[in-house]
Amino acid sequence: MKIIIKLTTVLLFIAIAGCGEKDKQAKTSDPVVFKTQMEALDKAKQVESTLQNAAAQQRKTIDESTNNPEQ
Questions:
Q1: How far apart (Å, rounded) are the C-alpha atoms in residues 11 and 57?
Q2: How many CB atoms sit inside 10 A of residue 23's CB?
Q3: Is the pTM here over 0.70, yes or no?
């Protein structure tokens, strides 16, 4: 009976210690994932800005060509 109690106690301790290690690993990897996502978001914002500037320039060119016909 004492062997079963000792074995159960050891297994329980190992299970608790194992869960703690997984939590530590998950917490240390979260900032890396978050950083990668933030970098991707920043790049997307830069591309959006570039596209908006190009569209504005294109609208300006079209407006100038329709308002001042050379014919």
A1: 69
A2: 9
A3: no
Distance CA 60, CA 50 (A): 15
Q: Which amino acid is at 3?
A: I
- What is the per-residue DSSP string for 12-47? HHHHHHHHHHHHHHHHHHHHHHHHHHHHHHHHHHHH
Burial class (CB in 10 A: 0-12, 13-18, 19+), 5: exposed
**Per-residue pLDDT tens digits for 32-61:** 778 888 999 999 999 999 999 999 999 999
